[in-house]
């Protein structure tokens, strides 16, 4: 029986034990809970099942394996986390962690002494960046990145980083969903990026966790925690248990290009080639994206779109805001063929377009 199946069996056993305990406490009916009329009634505290020691050992092992590869990054005014990418001192993090800074102080889990690092390249469109230590300390341990295609809903994960400045912190949860497309706000230093295929997790993601590690029980990084959902009904406060991480495969694709070429040469992100803004109708409802400018030689230019056009559909997707346009593009690839529906001088038009690259 392989390790993952053994863990699943242990989890089922633990859940069964918890259910049985709950039945005793709450007095659930059933054949095993009935008393004969002549039996002596007894009282006492129900036994609490012991923690699954093997599962706990898994947690401890993973933390020992991975935490030395998770660092704290201090920019001039911002604090975040990062993951050691290789033995040459490259560290991957979020673009919004590095901001506009070029130099940083990095603290590893094994030392309180800060190391200096410099920016290699930041790619805000995917909210990823790579920095490099000026001097690589002995024993620096690179993390191991997993395959995003193997991430499954329900999988146990640990989030590691420096939430609220508390370095080397670990939280636990599960993969709640995969394939999420999420738009990041620009408030609080966000990049405004729309990112596809995000991993949603219930593990707590707090300020400072950004750029850290989302780890499976095989000690593999499956994502870089990037943002938490907010609830507009409570003043945009963080929504507990809803965090998002950039999938490991995308992290590797971007980081490898940055390390090799000093920049991202093949983003894999589709682009229409316009600058746009959201417009509203007579009822003050979002009603489309007005084209402010068209990139010369870009997809929109080749399709005949002009400044002043108002885009209302991309393919079969209704476009009401610049965010909805970004989210629709995030699900597509450069070279994809689709249609753009728009209005010009009050008349509706539809044109074919071949998407470019961002």
Describe what you observe in this structure:
With 358 residues, the protein is of the alpha+beta class. The protein folds into three domains: 67-133, Trypsin-like serine proteases (Thrombin, subunit H); 148-261, Beta Barrel (Thrombin, subunit H); 270-357, Roll (Pdz3 Domain), CATH 2.30.42. The chain is built from six helices and 20 strands. The chain has helices spanning 3-26, 53-66, 95-98, 248-261, 299-303, 322-330, and strands spanning 70-74, 79-84, 90-93, 103-107, 115-123, 128-133, 156-161, 169-183, 194-201, 213-215, 221-231, 237-247, 270-271, 274-280, 286-294, 310-314, 317-318, 337-344, 347-354, 356-357. A six-stranded antiparallel β-barrel has the order 1-2-3-6-5-4. A six-stranded antiparallel beta barrel has the order 7-8-9-12-11-10. Strands 14, 15, 16, 17, 18 and 19 form a six-stranded antiparallel beta sheet that branches. It is elongated, with a radius of gyration of 25 Å. The two termini are 46 Å apart. Residues 1-44 have low confidence and may be disordered.
- Number of beta strands: 20
Q: How many structural domains can be distinguished in the coordinates?
A: 3
Q: What class, by secondary structure content? A: alpha+beta
CATH topology category name of the largest domain? Thrombin, subunit H
Q: Given the structure, what is the number of helices?
A: 6
**What is the spatial order of strands in the main beta sheet?**
1-2-3-6-5-4
* Helix content class: 10-25%
Give, in order, the helices and strands: HHEEEHEEEEEEEEEHEEEHEEHEEE
Q: Radius of gyration from the CA trace?
A: 25 Å
Uncertain ranges: 1-44
> Which architecture name of the largest domain does CATH use?
Beta Barrel
């Amino acid at each position: 029986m392989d390790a993952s199946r053994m863990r699943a069996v242990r989890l089922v056993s633990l859940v069964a034990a918890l259910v049985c305990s709950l039945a005793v406490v709450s007095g659930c009916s059933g054949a095993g809970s009935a008393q004969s009329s002549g039996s002596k009634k007894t009282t006492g505290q129900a036994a609490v099942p012991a923690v699954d020691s093997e599962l706990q050992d898994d947690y401890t092992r993973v933390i020992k394996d991975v935490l030395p590869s998770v660092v704290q990054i201090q920019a001039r005014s911002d604090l975040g986390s990062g993951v050691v990418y290789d033995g040459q001192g490259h560290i991957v993090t979020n673009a919004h962690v590095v901001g506009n800074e070029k130099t940083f102080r990095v603290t590893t889990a094994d030392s309180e002494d800060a190391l200096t690092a410099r920016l290699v390249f930041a790619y805000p469109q995917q909210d990823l960046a790579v920095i490099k230590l000026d001097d690589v300390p002995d024993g620096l341990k690179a993390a191991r990145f997993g395959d995003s295609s193997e991430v499954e809903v329900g999988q146990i994960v640990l989030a590691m980083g420096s939430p609220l400045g508390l370095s080397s912190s670990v939280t636990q949860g599960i993969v709640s969903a995969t394939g999420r497309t999420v738009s990041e706000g620009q408030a609080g230093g966000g990049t405004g990026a729309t990112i596809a295929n995000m991993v949603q997790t219930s593990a707590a993601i707090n300020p400072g966790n950004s750029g850290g590690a989302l780890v499976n029980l095989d000690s593999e990084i499956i994502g870089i925690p990037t943002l938490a959902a907010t609830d507009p009904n409570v003043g945009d406060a963080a929504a507990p248990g809803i965090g998002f991480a950039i999938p490991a495969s995308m992290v590797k694709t971007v980081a490898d290009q940055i390390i090799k070429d000093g920049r991202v040469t093949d983003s894999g992100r589709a682009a229409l080639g316009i600058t746009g803004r959201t417009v509203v109708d007579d009822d003050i409802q979002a009603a489309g994206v007005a084209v402010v400018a068209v990139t010369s030689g870009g997809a929109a230019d080749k399709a005949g779109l002009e400044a002043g056009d108002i885009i209302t559909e991309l393919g079969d997707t209704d476009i009401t805001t610049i965010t909805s346009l970004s989210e629709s593009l995030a699900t597509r690839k450069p070279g994809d063929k689709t249609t753009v529906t728009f209005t010009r001088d009050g008349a509706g038009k539809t044109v074919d377009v071949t998407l470019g690259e961002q």
